[in-house]
Amino acid sequence: MKQFWIDLCFVLLLICVVSLFFGQNQVSETLFERQINQFEEDISSQKEVQSAITLQDTSDNQVGTFMKSVSQFCITIIEFIAKIFSDFVSLFI
């Protein structure tokens, strides 16, 4: 049982770390940095700067979708374990 809890904690830690690196904020920040770098290159090469409106895609990417499904699966498992535990405790009480 101890090994199960250790494995569960490692999986949750891995999910948290991956979500930090591939979170929506990190992706938006990277796109913003690229646009700033492109603008600076255009200015330094004296190109005509066009003020085109760019729309950011806020939908989840494949990693985000996968992480969402994994987290929903983990939540379902945790709810199932909690229900079994509560039923087990209520059986003795």
Question: Mind explaining what this structure looks like?
Answer:
It is a single chain. The chain is built from 3 helices and no strands. It is rod-shaped. It has helices at residues 2-21, 24-44, 62-92. Helix content is 77%, strand content 0%. The longest helix has 31 residues, at 62-92. It is an all-alpha fold and 93 residues long. It has one domain (2-92).
Structural class: mainly alpha
Q: How large is the share of residues in beta strands?
A: under 5%
Q: How many discrete domains?
A: 1
H/E topology pattern: HHH
Q: How many DSSP helices?
A: 3
Characterize the overall form: rod-shaped
Q: Care to count the β-strands? A: 0
Distance between the termini: 23 Å
Estimate the helix proportion, in percent.
Answer: over 70%
- Average pLDDT value? 78
- Largest sheet data: none
As residue ranges, the low-confidence spans are none
Q: Evaluate the radius of gyration.
A: 23 Å
Please summarize what this structure is.
This protein has 93 residues and is mainly α. The protein has helices spanning 2-21, 24-44, 62-92. The longest helix has 31 residues, at 62-92.
Write the layout of secondary structure elements.
Elements: H1 2-21, H2 24-44, H3 62-92
Question: What are the defining features of this structure?
Answer:
93 residues, 77% helix, rod-shaped
